[in-house]
């Protein structure tokens, strides 16, 4: 039986192919459904994680497909929301979210997010602050930055670093805003 994605070599970890196939089938059903019942949404796709197993699906190929799937769901959600509340209200909400993001990004280096205790590992503040300056340039000055860069950014761990959940929530908000204005 042909596989959906290329597989990793038997000795290399990849995504569990059964989990990926089940998720994609659920996503396909949700996307083709004619109603707007909640099920799979762009945010859920962004937060999806799969178990790893040797010889599983290539992570690069699955991640790229998930990005495209998230884009498709976000576009559909945007159209539904615009038809429900109107374009002005929808863009006002997107502008409000962008304003919140810019306010957080405008904080001084080392103070953008809460820190975890020195016994706990968080994201390295220097890495996060450097990327935050890039994000700030995107929002304030229109400097180029792709969704893929935001989705795939990786920060080094550091004891006493920034609280990961806060940084991740901001990155999710950035992705939502970027998808909103596409």
UniProtKB/TrEMBL annotation:
Alphabetized InterPro entries for the sequence: CHP03543 (IPR019932), DivIVA_domain (IPR019933)
Q: Which domain of life is it from?
A: Bacteria
Record protein name field? DivIVA domain-containing protein
């Amino acid at each position: 039986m042909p596989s959906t994605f290329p597989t990793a070599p038997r000795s290399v970890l990849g995504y569990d192919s059964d989990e990926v196939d089940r998720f994609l089938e659920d996503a396909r059903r949700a996307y083709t459904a004619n109603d707007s019942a909640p099920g799979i949404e762009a945010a859920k796709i962004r937060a999806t994680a799969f178990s790893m197993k040797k010889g599983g699906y290539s992570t690069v190929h699955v991640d790229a497909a998930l990005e495209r799937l998230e884009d498709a769901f976000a576009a559909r959600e945007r159209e539904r929301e615009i038809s429900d509340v109107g374009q002005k209200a929808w863009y006002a909400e997107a502008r409000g979210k962008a304003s919140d993001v810019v306010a957080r990004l405008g904080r001084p280096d080392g103070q953008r997010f809460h820190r975890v205790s020195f016994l706990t590992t968080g994201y390295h503040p220097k890495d996060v602050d450097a990327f935050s300056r890039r994000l700030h340039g995107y929002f304030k000055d229109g400097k180029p930055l792709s969704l893929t860069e935001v989705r795939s950014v990786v920060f080094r761990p550091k004891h006493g670093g920034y609280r990961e959940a806060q940084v991740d929530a901001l990155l999710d908000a950035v992705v939502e805003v970027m998808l909103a204005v596409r």
